[in-house]
Amino acid sequence: MPTSKVSVHFSCPVERVWQVVTDLSNTAWRSDLKRVEVLDESHFVEHTKSGYATNFTVTACEPLRRWAFTMENGNMSGSWEGIFETAEDGTRLHCTETVNAKRWWMRPFAPGYLRRQQRLYLDDLRRELQK
């Protein structure tokens, strides 16, 4: 399964980064999403602008430290983990994402898809935190 690990620094407090990343009621900053449907405390569904739905199950929530979940849709399954650290002049976020393509012919494209999605998410997050 392809895995992508990135660490990024944000020039704002860890509380702000945590609040933006984990607030599922305010996702307008995400350029790829139409909406997020919160089902309960540990389940939510992201709907892309093209109408594709991905189901998420929160597997860890340690405020200001760690947020993790599994994800699944018709094309892939996987997991994401964010580790939040107070750093000099801000916050360091360590993201680890793993995906598994469900169809054999999609597997060669999974690493590129994963990198592109993670870059888009972090670019959107940076823009939101700079407001």
Q: At the third CATH level, what is the topology name?
A: Alpha-D-Glucose-1,6-Bisphosphate, Chain A, domain 4
Strand content: over 45%
Class, according to the CATH hierarchy? Alpha Beta
What is the total number of structural domains? 1
DSSP summary, beta strand count: 7
Structural class call reads alpha+beta
Kindly, what is the distance between the CA atoms of the first and last residues, rounded to a whole number of angstroms?
A: 36 Å
- Global shape: globular
Q: Which CATH architecture?
A: 2-Layer Sandwich
- Radius of gyration from the CA trace? 14 Å
Helix percent reads 10-25%
Question: Averaged pLDDT, please?
Answer: 96
Q: SSE string, helix = H, strand = E?
A: EHEEEEEEH
Q: Which strand order does the major sheet show?
A: 1-7-6-5-4-3-2
